[in-house]
Amino acid sequence: MTQSTLQKQFAEYIESFKKRVPQEKQDLMKKAIDELEQSNESKGLRVGDKAPTFALPNALNDEVKLHDLLAKGPVIVTFYRGGWCPYCNMELRAYQGILDEIHEAGGELVAISPQTPDQSLNTKEKSELNFHVLSDVGNKVAQEFDLVYRLPDYLIDLYKEFGLRVDEHNADDSWTLPVSATYIIAQDGTIAYEYAKADYKDRVEPSDVLNELKKVTAK
């Protein structure tokens, strides 16, 4: 099967990462993913569930309400870890690449992370994103979507060694993150599509999400 565009980008980055990072550190990162996959936490809401309503600040600190977005059409909501995550940045840029098609299909798109608005602005500007990049400080909305987990202590130490100060990006010291997840929320507030995985390298291709959006808007 031919790899999708995003999968190819991920595969290339992973190969580069393996060459740069000692195996014992790679093993620790894999251990953390395996432990999260085997746990009962952060599984995410499912198709048919009612999506929690939310009102969150965007990168300019203006409040964006899910209710207002749904008045225009179905909403793609993608939860990402932060602008420090290379996989997240690749994913967000891929969504930017099909943004016009999302709008043509009648949908809206928002991306949510626990970063502060200032950090979200950095993410938005760095990747030249023209959709709402929202700040869920404290992971309150992500918690309602059942996506939040805490990094294990050994991974926190490793992230600090890498210079990945998640606590500074998020302006809290909880070291909690949402699992990478993408939802399509129908106009009645029901989740029509979901893809949530403990492994942050396992993400749905945005073009596949677009196809699912078209199915929702066709009903």
Automatic annotation (TrEMBL):
Limits of the Thioredoxin domain: 45-218
Enzyme Commission number(s) of this protein: 1.11.1.24
Enzyme class, broadest EC rank: oxidoreductase
Catalytic activity: a hydroperoxide + [thioredoxin]-dithiol = an alcohol + [thioredoxin]-disulfide + H2O
Signal peptide: none
Pfam families: AhpC-TSA (PF00578)
InterPro entries reported in the protein's UniProt record: AhpC/TSA (IPR000866), Peroxiredoxin_BCP/PrxQ (IPR050924), Thioredoxin-like_sf (IPR036249), Thioredoxin_domain (IPR013766)
Superkingdom of this protein's organism: Bacteria
Record's keyword terms, sorted: Antioxidant, Disulfide bond, Oxidoreductase, Peroxidase, Redox-active center
Family membership noted in the UniProt record: Belongs to the peroxiredoxin family. BCP/PrxQ subfamily.
Protein's job: Thiol-specific peroxidase that catalyzes the reduction of hydrogen peroxide and organic hydroperoxides to water and alcohols, respectively. Plays a role in cell protection against oxidative stress by detoxifying peroxides and as sensor of hydrogen peroxide-mediated signaling events.
Protein name: thioredoxin-dependent peroxiredoxin
Species of provenance: Priestia iocasae
